[in-house]
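Re: your question from the hallway

Yes, I did run it. Sequences:
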Amino acid sequence: MINLELPKALRNIQAMTHQLAEQGFRPISRKYDRIEHGDTPAELKPLAQMIAAARPRGRKAGEGADGADPDAVKNGANLIGIVSVEEMCWGDVGLMLSLPAAGLGNAAIQAVGSAEQKQQYGKLYCAMAITEPGAGSDSAAITTTARRDGDEWVLNGEKIYCTGGQRCDAVVVWATLDKALGKAAIKSFIVPRDNPGMSLVRVEDKMGLRISDTAALAFNECRIPADHVLGSAEIADTEAARKKAFGGVMQTFDNTRPQVAAMALGVARAALEITREILEKEGVKADFSKSPYNSTATELELYRLEADLEAARLMTYKAAWMADNGQANSKEASMCKAKAGRMGNEVTLKCVALCGEAGYSERHLLEKLARDSKIIDIFEGTQQIQQLIVARHLLGLSSRELK
Amino acid sequence: MDDTQGAALADPPLDLRLTEEQRISREGMRRFVARDLAPLARSADEAGTAQAAVLDAVAGFGLPLMSMPEALGGAGLPRSPLGNVLACEDLGQGDMSQALAALQPLGLVNALIDFASDAQQEAWLPRFASETLVPAAVALGEPRATFDPGAPATTARRQGEDYLLNGEKSLIPLVERCELFLVIAVAEDGPAAFLVEADRAGMSRQRRDYMGLRAAEPGSLILEDVTVPAGHRLEHFDLTRLVALARLGQAALAVGCCQAVLEQCVPYALERKAFGEPIAQRQSVAFMIANMGIEIEGMRLLVWRAASRAEQGLSFHRQAYLAALQATEKAMEIGTNGVQVFGGAGFVRDYPLEMYYRNLRGLSALHGAVMV
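Structure:
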C-alpha cells in the first residue's frame, strides 16, 4: 500500500534526533563556524556517545510484530539514516560531520570489508580519501600508488578534501596498483591515522562547513600491513570482471548518496523555518489560502521552495526504502542526490534573499546555511555526475558512450 | 507542520508498493492506453473531438462505480483518491486531452459521494451506475485572469424554495454533451455546489477554442438567472476539499503526460544523429533527459503522498497544493524541453511533442477538472 508517512518508530527516532540537534548543535552552531579549526569540539563527545548508544544494532526498524515475514516491507537502517541525518543537519551539518562517529570510510568498510576489518575498524571513526589535486569527479584517474613489498603495502601520493582527515582514527585511501591497468587496478586501503608515512599537509579554509576538518594528506613510503586492503587485491583480467570490481567500489555510493541528499533536506528545512519565522513577524502569512498566482511574490516563492524540499525528501525516502527492501537503487540514489543537492542550494540562497538584510546578516543562521549548502551539491558526486548517471540509466548508455 | 495532524490509529510502514488490486487494474488500463488511447491522440486533437471509442472504453473501466454505494448500483468500495490518481496518470500518458473528457463523470460522482446527503445520493447517483459514458462535469473555473478557485464570482441568490444562479463557468470538458453540471457558486452563507441539469432555462453553452486540450471539447457554461431548487444544493459541500482533490487529478494527468514526453525523447535522442553520433551521447541533450526523469519522479511522489494522505483520512490540503504547484511548473519545463530535444521535428505536427506542449500548458488554466 502506498504510504509516504513515517511510521511511529521512525517518528520517535526523528523526534529524539531533533531534540539532540536543537539542544546539542544549534546553540554552538555559530561559535564553531567562527572558530573553524581545532580538535573535535568538546561538546560533541558526549553527543557521539549518546548516538552510539542509541543506534539500533542488528535489528532493523519495522521488524516488529511482522518481523518474521520475509515479504513484509521493511523500514530499515537506510531510512533511519535518512531521517536522522535530516534532523542532525537541521541542527548543523558541519557539526554532524565533526561527530567522531561513522564517517564515509566506515560505510566502505561496512560494504566490502572482511570480518576482521569490521571487527578492528568498525567502531572507529574512519574517513575516506579519494580526491587528488588532479582527480576529482574522475575518480578513476587517481595517481596515488600502492606497491606490494613483502607483507606490506607501500603507499605514495597526495590526497585532498578528505572529510575528517585530521581528527579520524583511520583513513580509507584509494590507490592504484598499476596506473596502466585503469579502473580495475584501483583498490582501497585502511591506513591508521598515526601510521608513519602518512602526514597531515593542511586543513582547508572553507566558505562553509567550517568546523568540519577537510584535510590534505601526504603519503610518503607509507607502509601498512598486507591485510589492510579492502576486498580482493587481485586485478581482474577480463573486461567484465574489471567492470565488476570497480562497480563494487562505486556501489558504496548507492547507499551514501541518499544520506548526503538527506543533509540537504535538513539544511533547507532549517532555512525555510527561520525564513518563515522572520517573515511572519512582518505579517507574511503563506497559508495556502490563495492560488499560486494570486499570492504575493514572497508567498509564492515560499511555496515553490517548500514543494522542492518535499519532492527531494520523498525521492530520498524512496531511494533509501529501495535499499532497505533489497532493490537496486543506483538510479534513484543519483536522482535524489541531484534533486536534493540543487534544492538545498536554491532554497538556502533564496531564503537569504527573501529576508533581505536579516538574511545576509550573521545575527541569523540563514547566511551560514547558504554557505554550508553549496558543498552538498558537490561532494559525494557533483550535480553533473549525478545527471550523467541518471542519463545513462534512462538512455541505456554506458560510461564510454555517454562521457 | 501539519504532517501528522489527524493521524489515524493505524501505523503502516513507509511503503512504495502498489496493492495487488492496484497492480491488476493498472495493467488493464495501461494495455488500453498503449493500444487504443495513445494512437488516437493526434487525430482527436486535429478533429477537436473526443473519440466515442475512447469515451466508451474508459467508461467500461467503471471508475465512478467503485466507490458508489452498492444499493445504488456501485461496488461499495471505500473512496480511493490514490487509485484514481493512478488512473489519471496512466490515461494522461496516453492522451491528457481525451483523458480529461473521459474522466469528467468520475469527478462529479466523487463530489456526490463526498458532499451529498443520503437522499441526494439516492436521487442522483443511480444514473451513473452505468458502464457507458454519462456526460456530466464539475463546473468551477471562470474566465478571469485573476480567478481563484477559492473565491468564485458566480452567485447563488436564495429566492423562496429556489436559488437563482448567475455567472460564467469556463474550460469545462465535454461542455456541449453534458447532461448534468455541478456548478460551484457563492451563496449568502459561503461557497456552495448545485446540481444543475443541462436543460434548465437560462443555461447556455459555448464550445471555445484553446491552445490545447482540444479533444476534451472544452467550453463555457453561461448561467443567466437559472432557477435551481434548494434541494439541489449539496448538503455537506467543502470547496477546499474539492479544490485539493481536483489539483491532484490534474497533477496526475500531467505526470502521465510528462512520462509520455520522456518516453518519446529517449528513443529519438538515441536514434537522431548529429556530428556523427547520436545526440543522446551529448551531455547537453542527455542532461535534459536526466532532468525530465528526476523531476517526474519528484512530481509523482508528491502527488502520491497527498493522495495517500487523503485516502488515509489525514490532512492533505497543503500537500496537494504543493504537488499541484510543482507539477504545473515542472510539467511545462518538461513539455518545452521535449520539443527542444526533437528540435524542428518537435515543432511540426508529425510528432506528438508539440501537442504535449500545448496540452501541458492547460494545467495553469484548469480548475476542478478531475476530483480524484
